[in-house]
Specification:
Blueprint: H1 3-17, H2 22-36, H3 42-54, H4 59-71, H5 76-103, H6 108-131, H7 135-138, H8 142-162, H9 166-180
Helix pairs in contact: 1-5, 2-4, 2-6, 3-4, 4-5, 8-9
């Protein structure tokens, strides 16, 4: 099968079933592009996640653009194909769902569905966090791992308890990483 067709079908599926946004989609993306198709390595996947987090826009769309570009040998058409394929299904679903839910927002069935979806989204995001807790992100040697965990814990502390701006945390962590690794 043509790589463009595989790419489009894969990202249509990811867009259709990627509930909960980009972070919730990470485990789905990883399973499809790393495990199922083998288009990229797990190390490349974690690098793509890092780059997608730092660039403007949703992580699912950014990663689709990058993977589409990479998998098709550096073609802009591949990047556009993956990006459009991951965006179209949720766009169509949101148009229909917003109209449907707006008309029935007081329905106990609709309220129940949303009550059931909320914990699923938290679980998928937690799954993405656990997926990224690996030697590619924290280092394979004990000293690297300890340093990485320390940076992670300190960053979490400042982000959660002191409300330091995330951009400042990213810049400081980048400098710290540069000097200690």
């Amino acid at each position: 099968m043509n790589i463009y067709l595989k790419l489009i079908l894969t990202y249509l599926k990811l867009g259709l079933f990627g509930f909960g946004g980009g972070y919730a989609m990470l485990s789905l993306i990883q399973q499809e592009v790393v495990q199922r198709h083998g288009w990229i390595s797990f190390t490349e996947f974690t690098d793509i996640v890092a780059i997608s987090q730092m660039t403007p826009g949703p992580i699912g769309i950014n990663s689709a653009t990058y993977i589409g570009y990479t998998v098709t040998g550096g073609t802009v058409i591949g990047a556009i194909a993956a990006t459009v394929a991951v965006v179209v299904p949720p766009y169509i679903l949101m148009l229909y769902a917003s109209h449907f839910v707006h008309k029935r927002r007081e329905s106990p069935i609709i309220k129940g569905v949303f009550m059931g979806l909320r914990p699923v989204m938290v679980g998928l995001i937690a799954s993405a966090a656990l997926l990224l807790m690996n030697s590619d992100n924290f280092g394979s040697e004990m000293s690297e791992c300890i340093k990485s965990i320390l940076i992670c814990v300190i960053t979490f502390f400042f982000a959660y308890f002191t409300k330091v701006h995330p951009i400042l945390l990213i810049i400081v962590a980048g400098f710290i990483g540069y000097f200690i690794f």
